[in-house]
Amino acid sequence: MSGPLTDAMADGRPARGPTLTRGHAALALALLLGLQPITTDVFLPALPALTQALGATVEQAQLTMSALILAFGVAQLVWGPVADRVGRRRVLLAGLGVYVVASVGATLAGHIEVLVAWRVLQGATLAAAVVCARAIVRDLYDPFEGAQVMSLGLSGLAVIALLSPTLGGVAMTFGGWRSTLALVSAAGIVALAWVARELPETAPALNPRATAPAALLAQWRVIGRDRVFCAWTALISASYAGLFVFLAGSSYVYIGTLGMSPAAYGVAMGSGSAAYMAGTFLCRRWVARHGMRPTVRRAAWFTLAGGASIVALAAFDVRAVWAVLLPQWLYMFAHGLHQPCGQTGAVSPFPRAAGAASALAGFALAGAAFWAGLWLGRALDGTTWPFALGVGVCALITSAIAWTLVQRLPPER
User: Fold this and answer.
1) pTM of the model
2) Residue 354, domain CATH
3) 367-396 pLDDT, tens per residue?
4) 353, burial (CB in 10 Å: exposed 0-12, middle 13-18, buried 19+)
């Protein structure tokens, strides 16, 4: 892609204002951020069958999720500064190209160790899409409008997340576990083609020193000490850790413990995504009316209700689908309120280093999810208790952060 806009970006001169309409920006967010639930949720119904087919243990199979999310977090520290230096578009094209290769490799893997290795590469390249998506919002909008655009994009993501486990369950039923990864490969090809054809560069100026080690470390120190960044990042990290417990453990609980079919399991997880989508819709109204801090304060009550209810029901050994599904709806509804505010708020203090701030926030979020998933893989015992306990602890931490650290921040401008 060439022209005045990209020529300006090539030598670091400021670009000419926003290059995307609000609807176009929301579509870009939905497609790029939507790759994350596609990479995880489509694959979820296959986990029990994959464990058996490859002769793996539950802990080894869980590595296909937790190793992916760790690579996803670490790679953001690389992609963020690179995106600030060379631009969002170039990073997206490179990252998505390798993502497609990794997805095809995972589809063809014959051993659990090989599958884990391909999933690590998937996670590392998925990071490019997510980092650039967050940075694009900061490139184009102030924090207040950015939260509304982010929530609109996350509503589109929720539609993708709604369909992903359902499609994964159907594919698993009729084509086996490899067919779920074939769907992931197809999604990567679609995203790559759309970026190549439709997405211009959005960074207002390039920073040639963004990847210089000394400058980068200094930038990370500034970002990591900012209390606005820390509060919002802590919120989305704790909330996502609880979501990851749902993602990583739900197939074993719904299919293994509660006896659901893969197709029915996909519908159950899809209903949770519908609750998440409802949260993103409400987020736009609440942010416009009340602001971001009051929005997450209200959302925390739903988070806590979801966590407390699943723990209480598991403590009384209630082994029924509704005893997991209802708390899941509450938690994911609140997650749809926390994430647009938190992801926008974390990068809001750094308009000239949105890539680096987005990367550091993503690293923290993925790190929290990795440790939650690693613990869960060792704790699952055929009952709902470890699963419920993980969700409950994350819900308690998320609510505490929403009611304390976030509320002490100055009002957003």
Assistant:
1) 0.75
2) 1.20.1250.20
3) 898 899 889 888 888 888 999 999 999 999
4) buried
